[in-house]
Structure formats: C-alpha cells, structure tokens
Amino acid sequence: MKIAILGAGESGVGAALLAKAKGLEVFVSDKGEIKEQYKAKLATAAIPFEEGNHTLETILNSDEIIKSPGISDKAAIVQEATKKQIPVISEIEFAGRYTDAKFICITGTNGKTTTTLLTYHLLKNAGINVGLAGNIGESLAEKVIDNKHDYYVVELSSFQLDNMYQFKAHIAVLTNITPDHLDRYEYSMEKYAASKLRVARNMTGADFFLFNADDKNIRKTFDSANFGGTTIPFSLDGAADAKVYFEGKSIKVTARFYEGTVDTSRSGLIGKHNQYNTMAAVAVAKLMGVEDKQIEQALETFENAEHRLQLVGIAKEVSYINDSKATNVEAVWYALEGIKQPIIWIAGGVDKGNDYSTLVELAREKVKVLVCLGKDNEKLKEAFGRVVPIIAETTSIEYAVRLSRSLATPGDVVLLSPACASFDLFDNYEHRGQRFKEAVEKIVLKK
C-alpha cells in the first residue's frame, strides 16, 4: 500500500514513522521548509521526502493520503486527490487503526489544552497506564509505534477532526464552541460546530460524551436523540440535565457510574472557564475509577501549560499573570471574570474582527488601567475609552510592564490577556508570553 503524507511537522512525520513501521510504502511532501529535527527523523527511518514543492505524479499515485491539520481541504493538492477519489485522512485516523488502546478525546474552542493536561495529570497520578498526544504537540501516530499505553488522552483541534471517519473515542469531552477559525468553514458557525461534534462520532452504548450544557452552540448542534453513547452534561448555570456541577468549592457528580462530591479547594486554577475545565477532567477521572482523595491531591499539584492564566511572579503584593494564549474575546472574558482583584490589563495585537461589547461591564467593574500593546490600538481605545480610567499604548512589552508596575498598588493584578493575535509584534502567542515573563523577571522581580 502506498501512503503519501502532506506536511512534515509533528503529525506528518509521526504518521510517516508509523506507516514505515507497519511496512507501508511512504512518501512525505511539504510545500514549505521542513525543520531539521524532522528531516533527521525521516532520514534515519529511510523515508523519502521533498520540501518546497508537491510532486503531483508521486502523491496522486498513492492509495491513501494523510494530511497534516494545517492544510485546508481547499488546497489544490487535496482537491486533485479528491477528484481522483484518493481517501484523505488525518494522522489521528491513521493512528487509531494500529492500537487497541482506548481514547479519551478532548476538543473545544477554548479550554481544551488545560482540560487535556489536567485529565492526563489526574489519571497518571492515579497509576493508570496513560499516554498524552494530539494537538498538545505530540504525535499520536509516533506513540502508537511502541504502543505502550492502555489509554491515550488526546487533544483534538477541529482541523484534526475534519479528516477522521472511523476513529472512535471511548470518552469524548467538548468544552465549548465559540467563533474561531471560521475562514476554514466558509464563515459558517454551523459548519464549525459540526466539526467539533465529530469528536463524538461512532460512539456506542459503552462510550461517554461529556459536554458543556451551558453552551448554546453545543445545544443547538448536538443531536442527542440520534447519539449512540451515554451523555454526561456538566454545568455552572444550573442546567436541568446536568450530571456534573459545582456545590461551593466541590464538584458534585450524580451519574450512574458515581454519585458524590470531590473537593477542589486546593486547586490553583482560577476563573469560571477553569471551573468548566475542572468539571470535565474530574468527571473523566471518576469514569475511570479514580478515588476522590487521589483526584483532590492531584488537583493541588497540577501545573497548567504556559501562557494560560499563569502566575509568573508577585512583587510588592502585585501579581503578574501571563494569559498570552487568550487570543479571542471569550478567553479574555473568562480571565477578567475569574480575577477578583483590581486589574491592570495589557491587551492588543492583531484584531480578529473582535466584538469587545461583552467585556465592557467587566472592564468597568475591574480594570483600572488598560495598556494597549500593539501597532493599531484604535478599536481597543474606542471600546474602553469611556469605561477604563487610564488608557496607555505602546509597542514595547518591557514598557508595558514598567508602566503597569508604576501604576499598580498592593493587591492589584497585572494581566496580559490580549484578545488578539500576536503577529504584529511577536512570532506567536508563546513568544509574546515569554517576552512578558522575561520583562516581569527583569523589571519587577529582580528589583
């Protein structure tokens, strides 16, 4: 069987290595430049590859194509493959064929990475033989080569879900659906939501779908009447069908597999969105039979991924929080809502068509200073000019931190939560967050 792989990043190279290990004929093609680390992996495995070009004749002579998630179905090479009726699948679909392990799959517009990492942490700390893979930055296909785990916690983006057909999760989690990446879905929320719902595809009565019962887009799109698995809705807003919800600082579960409460008071996660993430992860852990005490201890030791409401330092009773991953309005809403102290808010970058109206009341209530960090700050200034007492702007993150320090008083929080993409001043959100951390360390913590 001949396999062509489009894209030589983490997922593409992982799929190539798995295909080679299973004795398939493999060719890897990347229209861009392949990173040296991935070239080395392909060369070591004696897998032929090309970069800077797609050789149509070779690719279209394959029996199946594995497409990296960053490549759109509208790409010319994919359209040509479709015309020739060559199946185009994702790395995750391919990997699922070669393991009997069960999959715990997590998706959502916001919160999927935190939920994935927390779920993995709870299960691993309980001694369950579990691996971590997917959109988190680790190839599932490459891990399946050794096939050492009984379970995999897999973070899935909508782009990965789009080319999955026979793959089945044992437990699926959908944190929320809000507008994002709509350019890939013909600017249709219905199509984007349908993509997210693919996480529950192919489920049977022995499988479980956990979803945010407060999310109107999930409610609108999910057809529970024709769903084959068991649903476990979780809610903070009192949804009538909720099986998982908060009572004070404890999570209450009222389901067939478990009925009781888990104390979350020692968790370091803050904000309403992290309550949703925690409900989902705790419910998965209870489904997997993890004891309450084990969950409570693991909640205390969990460290979230960088750039997600990450406390990077405290100086003179002022806390500095890096939330650079908050590149949309919804994520910033959760950050502003979750912080109870007065806020000096650093925001801005490349606007993604944002509607800031949902943030106005929170800003009026909590934000004492808005520091606009970007090349074009007019939309931010227009949205918050009448509700935030002090507004400043800069293109220097070091200056933004220095200014924040000078305006802060004990008990304040300096929050980097941009609501925008980073590409006007930084390589990506990680670069922006790292620069913020460095500025805090250099300007604040060492003085």
Automatic annotation (TrEMBL):
UniProt keyword annotations, A-Z: ATP-binding, Cell cycle, Cell division, Cell shape, Cell wall biogenesis/degradation, Cytoplasm, Ligase, Nucleotide-binding, Peptidoglycan synthesis
The Mur ligase central domain, residue ranges: 106-285
Pathway(s) where this gene product acts: Cell wall biogenesis; peptidoglycan biosynthesis
The enzyme's E.C. designation: 6.3.2.9
Domain called Mur ligase C-terminal: residue spans: 307-420
A molecular-function term among this protein's GO annotations: UDP-N-acetylmuramoylalanine-D-glutamate ligase activity
Highest taxon listed in the record's lineage: Bacteria
Binding annotation for ATP: 108-114
Recorded catalytic activity of this chain's protein: UDP-N-acetyl-alpha-D-muramoyl-L-alanine + D-glutamate + ATP = UDP-N-acetyl-alpha-D-muramoyl-L-alanyl-D-glutamate + ADP + phosphate + H(+)
PROSITE patterns in UniProt: FOLYLPOLYGLU_SYNT_1 (PS01011)
GO biological process: cell division; cell wall organization; peptidoglycan biosynthetic process; regulation of cell shape
Cellular localisation: Cytoplasm
GO annotation, cellular component aspect: cytoplasm
Protein family according to the UniProt entry: Belongs to the MurCDEF family.
Role according to the record: Cell wall formation. Catalyzes the addition of glutamate to the nucleotide precursor UDP-N-acetylmuramoyl-L-alanine (UMA).
Protein name: UDP-N-acetylmuramoylalanine--D-glutamate ligase
Organism field: Pontibacter flavimaris
Classification lineage: Bacteria, Pseudomonadati, Bacteroidota, Cytophagia, Cytophagales
